[in-house]
Specification:
Layout: H1 38-42
Amino acid sequence: MNTHRVETVIRRDRTVLLKDLPFQAGESVEVIISQCSSRDKKKERYPLRVTSVKYVDPTKPVAGGDWNVSQ
């Protein structure tokens, strides 16, 4: 089963227009329509892209006291 996702808006005459579909003319397809929630539209793809990272003592050993070798 070949699946293709298209996001579009309902036209004023309450119709949907789908263009440039990757199927051949005469092929049988199934159309399922679901409403997008406003939360899904605002969801960023990379939410951490603009955040900064601060390293405090990046060369300090982590849990050094937990190793038997260091005792």
